[in-house]
């Protein structure tokens, strides 16, 4: 076989010597897919001797290729730059093993020759199967955890609704107006938190919530519970498309809830032209981006309080506590004949303790 292929010149002898001692299987075919040269490595891999290869075709090793298709395959390898494939070879003893084959075609001694290198990829295949099995198991486990987390959010929301219903029952049994109002405010705050868990349960992302969706739903619910047809409010909401974690959504939601409810309760005494404006945007700075929340109403205003703790309002105390202690932000507000406006600024990125 070798005498038919290699010319007896010094360059060919060196080339043949290199192929013979290559750790990877090396073999040449003619245009019909018949072996015209094999090195020691491919003989060791397959179990055939060089003499046996003299009468063999590629289809004897790769039984998935019919012999009649070998000329087509040889032509494809010959005309394709850096041809490669993974396949299964059959050993002489009947066992099989995975192979990665690299092939190129060239003209040698006036004839088309296909040169191929084969590498046993048994270990790679075993590793790949283990990797795929592990990946499938992880995906299955992740899916199970997602279902479990969704169920937890669903149950939290349901439990909050039960608590809200209990407060409502207590409110209807009481004749104390102050108590009834306090219970109603507590129910409204519970709903603000429950809405976050509802969106997490219904959404595709278990870690973050689309803020515009949450705020618009929250404001709509507040509007439904706090306004009436006799005292309508025109809402102007502009929320930049950002996503927050459930914890930060609850914090921002509670701020909006308290300021919105406060406006509906005390600011809007007119029967028309009531406006509630809210805008949330990202402010880009050199070292840190910030969220700016701007809320304004055109109500009657109020007497400014220097320190929130001097006010007996639970709502304003809660707002300052969330902004300053939890969001590491700041709040400023002003009041006048044209209503009250609040500007709240806090870091966009969430800290570790969030």
UniProtKB/TrEMBL annotation:
<dbReference type="GO" id="GO:0005524">
    <property type="term" value="F:ATP binding"/>
</dbReference>
<feature type="domain" description="PAS">
    <location>
        <begin position="11"/>
        <end position="53"/>
    </location>
</feature>
<dbReference type="InterPro" id="IPR036890">
    <property type="entry name" value="HATPase_C_sf"/>
</dbReference>
<keyword id="KW-0067">ATP-binding</keyword>
<dbReference type="InterPro" id="IPR035965">
    <property type="entry name" value="PAS-like_dom_sf"/>
</dbReference>
<dbReference type="InterPro" id="IPR000014">
    <property type="entry name" value="PAS"/>
</dbReference>
<keyword id="KW-0547">Nucleotide-binding</keyword>
<protein>
    <recommendedName>
        <fullName>histidine kinase</fullName>
        <ecNumber>2.7.13.3</ecNumber>
    </recommendedName>
</protein>
<dbReference type="InterPro" id="IPR011495">
    <property type="entry name" value="Sig_transdc_His_kin_sub2_dim/P"/>
</dbReference>
<keyword id="KW-0418">Kinase</keyword>
<dbReference type="Pfam" id="PF13426">
    <property type="entry name" value="PAS_9"/>
</dbReference>
<keyword id="KW-0597">Phosphoprotein</keyword>
<dbReference type="InterPro" id="IPR005467">
    <property type="entry name" value="His_kinase_dom"/>
</dbReference>
<dbReference type="GO" id="GO:0004673">
    <property type="term" value="F:protein histidine kinase activity"/>
</dbReference>
<dbReference type="Pfam" id="PF07568">
    <property type="entry name" value="HisKA_2"/>
</dbReference>
<keyword id="KW-0808">Transferase</keyword>
<feature type="domain" description="Histidine kinase">
    <location>
        <begin position="151"/>
        <end position="350"/>
    </location>
</feature>
């Amino acid at each position: 076989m070798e005498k038919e292929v290699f010319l007896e010149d010094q360059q060919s002898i060196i080339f043949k010597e290199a192929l013979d001692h290559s750790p990877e299987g090396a073999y040449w075919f003619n245009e019909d897919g018949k072996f015209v040269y094999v090195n020691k490595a491919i003989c060791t891999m397959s179990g055939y001797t060089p003499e046996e290869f003299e009468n063999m075709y590629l289809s004897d090793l790769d039984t998935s290729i019919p012999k009649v298709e070998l000329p087509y395959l040889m032509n494809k390898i010959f005309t394709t730059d850096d041809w490669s494939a993974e396949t299964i070879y059959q050993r002489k003893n009947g066992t099989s093993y995975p192979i990665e084959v690299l092939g190129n075609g060239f003209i040698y001694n006036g004839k088309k020759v296909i040169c191929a290198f084969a590498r046993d990829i048994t270990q790679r295949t075993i590793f790949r199967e283990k990797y795929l099995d592990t990946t499938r198991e992880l995906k299955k486990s992740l899916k199970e955890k997602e279902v479990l987390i969704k169920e937890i959010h669903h149950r939290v929301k349901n439990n909050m609704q039960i608590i809200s219903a209990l407060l409502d029952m207590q409110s209807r049994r009481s004749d104390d107006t102050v108590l009834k109002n306090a219970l109603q405010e507590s129910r409204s705050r519970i709903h603000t938190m429950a809405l976050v868990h509802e969106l997490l349960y219904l959404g595709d992302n278990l870690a973050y919530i689309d803020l515009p969706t949450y705020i618009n739903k929250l404001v709509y619910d507040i509007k439904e519970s706090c306004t009436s047809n006799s005292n309508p409010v025109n809402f102007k909401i502009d929320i930049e498309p950002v996503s927050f974690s459930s914890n930060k959504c609850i914090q921002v939601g509670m701020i909006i809830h308290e300021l919105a409810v406060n406006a509906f309760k005390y600011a809007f005494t007119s029967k028309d032209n009531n406006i509630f404006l809210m805008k949330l945007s990202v402010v880009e700075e050199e070292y840190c981006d910030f969220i700016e929340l701007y809320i304004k109403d055109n109500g009657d205003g109020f007497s400014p309080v220097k320190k929130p703790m001097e006010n007996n309002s639970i709502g304003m105390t809660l707002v300052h506590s969330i902004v300053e202690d939890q969001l590491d932000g700041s709040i400023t507000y002003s009041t006048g004949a044209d209503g009250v406006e609040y500007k709240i600024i806090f870091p966009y990125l969430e800290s570790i303790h969030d």
